[in-house]
């Protein structure tokens, strides 16, 4: 299969640290074909930028015209442009290319070198605001660049002012316990974080991040997922110790970043101060994870040997609060009594406050439920967690996995593994390849869910490395012993799928 083509229109760093050199390293690690287009030449080394020479607009235009004939891009990434004339060459080509086919534009507004040299005057700043950013799909400034573009303010205020649907304001150059970026996208917003790494080879981090985001878009990932991948790749490049000059060495991302669980970031809904603590001890769930809407069925499943069952009840729109709580208690109580009697685990879906009041110690929440929590509810849930409430969280994409990590749950569900009619959802099936990646990358046990209709599918989930597999309708169609035998068979197999690149579970744009 041909690699996706992206263009990087940026500066040539004579020291080999940032600009097109960094872009090429990032593109190679991301598995895309990069066309490096020089918009400016710099005289620099690892210590300082001595001079910047914008490429003549005719020369820049000629480079792009040649590429358009043979290597048309899926995504264009811009870095150091050198001046207003060069910026306008870029905008003209973006418009021309978009007349033929969709082309995403990722803007890395390189306005100042890490050594302090300024790359943008007032005219160029105005051109960015009025001409380039309105065409952008995503923009990736650091905090200082965002301030120059829109003025002072916190990232949550600066991002909307940039006027671009997807904004990632990077903050990894600010020392602290966490390297935190502010993400705003059509899919998700929040603080994307990893533990901060002290490294001298940090020259070109912004270039790597923007190129990785562009490459992820070219590979079909939605912008929020692309930001997760860009964060992972950039952090991977900080592990090397190569510092060939007297100053900072170049970031050197590794293609192996995609299967390094230590690089999976967390997506926080509020500004984080510490990395989430992991839950130590045996897996919270293991084996068959049954789901039913009947308390009596929960009792029967526990009696048949299932160790974990979720009670999933839906409240009718016409159902009054009192009637709902009476029905919920009537379904929960016998199931909870059976769990206590048999040493099994009852999990209640969604209704965590009511479940907690009824004595349930384990709840499951979807991503929509998490996002619906206001400040007070978040605090209450955190307090309940501190007092021992166990929590499972759904996930369907890379950014949802990252958000789940931020809550430090007891398990994370990955789905739908196969197409499912249980609920309407926009997600593409994860397949066994994504499930294997989830299981390898997640810091907590992973549960495979969605479309399991035959015991052979449960065998495959167990052989993917997942801690548990969900069965819903199948528990009413086949006896529990058939499902238990299937899980035992799969759990005894070697891993059937080695984790590699995940595939997108939602359309890119």
UniProtKB/TrEMBL annotation:
Enzyme Commission numbers on file: 2.7.1.49
Enzyme type, top EC level: transferase
Taxonomic superkingdom: Bacteria
Residue ranges of every copy of the Pyridoxamine kinase/Phosphomethylpyrimidine kinase domain listed in the record: 13-251
Keyword Endoplasmic reticulum assigned: no
Residue ranges of the TM segments: none
Keyword Kinase assigned: yes
Xref: InterPro entries: Aldolase_TIM, HMP/HMP-P_kinase_dom, PM/HMP-P_kinase-1, Ribokinase-like, ThiamineP_synth_sf, ThiamineP_synth_TenI
Pathway annotation: Cofactor biosynthesis; thiamine diphosphate biosynthesis
Keywords: Kinase, Multifunctional enzyme, Transferase
Domain Thiamine phosphate synthase/TenI, residue spans: 298-474
Cofactor: Mg(2+)
Single annotated GO MF: phosphomethylpyrimidine kinase activity
PANTHER family associated with the record: HYDROXYMETHYLPYRIMIDINE_PHOSPHOMETHYLPYRIMIDINE KINASE THI20-RELATED, PHOSPHOMETHYLPYRIMIDINE KINASE
Protein name from the UniProt record: hydroxymethylpyrimidine kinase
């Amino acid at each position: 299969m041909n690699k996706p083509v992206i263009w990087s229109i940026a500066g040539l760093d004579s020291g080999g640290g940032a600009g097109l050199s960094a872009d090429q390293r990032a593109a190679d690690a991301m598995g895309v074909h990069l066309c490096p287009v020089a918009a400016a030449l710099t005289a620099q080394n690892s210590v300082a930028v001595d001079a910047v020479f914008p490429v003549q607009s005719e020369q820049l235009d000629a480079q792009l015209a040649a590429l358009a004939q043979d290597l048309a891009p899926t995504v264009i990434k811009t870095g150091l442009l050198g001046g207003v004339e060069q910026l306008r060459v870029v905008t003209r080509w973006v418009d021309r290319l978009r007349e033929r086919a969709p082309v995403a534009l990722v803007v890395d507004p390189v306005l100042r070198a890490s050594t302090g040299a300024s790359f943008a005057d007032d005219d160029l700043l105005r051109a960015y605001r009025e001409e380039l950013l309105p065409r952008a799909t995503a923009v990736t400034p650091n905090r200082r660049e965002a301030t120059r573009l829109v003025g002072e303010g916190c990232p949550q205020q600066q991002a909307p002012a940039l006027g671009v649907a997807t904004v990632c304001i990077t903050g990894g150059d600010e020392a602290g316990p966490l390297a935190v970026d502010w993400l705003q996208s059509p899919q998700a917003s929040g603080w994307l974080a990893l533990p901060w790494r002290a490294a001298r080879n940090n020259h070109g981090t912004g270039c790597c991040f923007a190129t990785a985001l562009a490459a992820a878009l070219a590979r079909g990932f939605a912008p929020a997922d692309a930001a997760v991948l860009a964060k992972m790749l950039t952090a991977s490049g900080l592990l090397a110790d190569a510092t060939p000059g007297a100053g900072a060495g170049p970031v050197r991302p590794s293609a192996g970043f995609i299967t390094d669980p230590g690089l999976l970031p967390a997506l926080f809904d509020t500004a984080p101060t510490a990395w989430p603590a992991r839950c130590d001890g045996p897996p919270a769930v293991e084996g068959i994870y049954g789901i039913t809407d009947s308390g009596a069925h929960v009792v029967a499943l526990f009696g048949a040997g299932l160790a974990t069952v979720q009670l999933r009840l839906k409240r009718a729109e016409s159902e009054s609060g009192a009637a709902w709580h009476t029905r919920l208690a009537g379904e929960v109580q016998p199931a909870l009594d059976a769990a206590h009697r048999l040493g099994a685990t009852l999990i209640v879906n969604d209704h965590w406050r009511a479940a907690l009041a009824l004595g349930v110690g384990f709840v499951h929440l979807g991503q929509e439920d998490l996002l619906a929590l206001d400040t007070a509810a978040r605090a209450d849930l955190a307090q309940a967690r501190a007092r021992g409430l166990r929590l499972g969280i759904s996930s369907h994409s890379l950014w949802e996995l990252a958000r789940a990590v931020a809550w430090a749950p007891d398990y994370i569900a990955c789905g739908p593994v196969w197409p499912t009619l249980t609920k309407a959802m926009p997600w593409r099936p994860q397949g066994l390849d994504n499930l294997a990646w989830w299981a390898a990358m997640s810091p907590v046990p992973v549960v495979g869910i969605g479309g399991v209709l035959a015991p052979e599918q449960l065998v495959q989930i167990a052989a993917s490395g997942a801690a548990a597999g969900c069965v819903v309708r199948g528990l009413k169609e086949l006896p529990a012993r058939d499902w238990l035998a299937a899980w035992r068979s799969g759990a005894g197999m070697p891993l059937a799928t080695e984790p590699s690149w995940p595939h997108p579970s939602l359309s890119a744009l």
